[in-house]
Amino acid sequence: MFIENKSQVTKYYEIMNKIYFLFSLLLMLSLASCGSYGYVRLDYPQKPMVVLPEGINNIVVLNRSLTKEEDKRGEVLESIATGEIAGSDKLASDEVIKGAFDGLQNKSHLNIVIPDTLRIYGTGTRQMPDKLNWERVASICNSAQADALLVLETFDSNSNILRSAIADQVSSVMTTGKPNLRLPSRVRVDVKSYWRLYDPVTKSISDHFQQTYYMDFDLVNDLPPVNALHETAYAAGLDYVSRFLPGYYRVKRDMYKKGKGKDKRLFDRGWRSTEVARWKEAIEIWREIAEDTNSKSAGRAALNIAVAYEVLGETNLALQWAQQAYRDYGDKLGRDYSKTLLRRRNLEF
Known about the structure:
This protein has about 350 residues and is α/β, with parallel strands linked by helices. The chain has helices at about 5-35, 75-80, 90-105, 135-145, 160-175, 230-240, 265-275, 280-290, 300-310, 315-330, 330-349, and strands spanning about 35-45, 60-65, 110-115, 120, 150-160, 185-200, 205-220, 245-255. Helices cover about 50% and strands about 20% of the residues. This is DUF6340 family protein.
């Protein structure tokens, strides 16, 4: 920019000062506005991977992954070939059932029933057995007073310690011409399971799932820990039944930090209560403001109460207060929040 004289210079700086002042004022207003808002993060539910038909609440579970005692020859040969301890799968497969049982305990409306006779015989290998006939399924469900039958159809385990050691030695010989003296320090134990969930009412398979699950362990005296297989099998059971449970992801909920007019100090006290996780106390404080129709902070208080109830897991109450925030006070956050809560309630009920 070319400036001819001092008056132009003065005028130029006056203009620039005004622009700077206006910019600073806008920035201050923006910061003040942002200072009126806060937020909280909480878990938002997702639909389960498997949504079961209505009416299925009690599920009886059976272990069909074993063979009859007199027909063990094939199983022992397979155990030797894969590096298993012969008979280890017999005990570990029951751990999968235990994991499934614990995985649903007090976590949903679903309930696992363990029958008096837990085991029925199948192939005892990874070979898939035929489906159970529906008369037998209905009989088992009736005896256990269950709505569906969950069957562990196959179960097999192995570890990679032998394969890993051989692969390391072969690689070392090919690369350096001599074996590797370093021994493996960790082992991976994996279990392979196949599950079927029989619905006797519709005579259909509500879920069938081929599962591979593994865990890594540190070697103890060059051997896997004694409980490595059982831990892996138990965790596999937990992992499978998680298919029937809702998932969660973190979401952000906007709130008001500041009130208006005569209730500013009281509003602030409610916000400070949330900062120390005293949500019920904050609700009582904000309720006093929200019920005063003459308060300039009533809509903000109603919105905050809605968020507080969602934090406490009371979705219906949260929805009522969010709707009130918009319906009675025209709070736009309340309108958008109501739609979000309606979606959440549809997931939960």
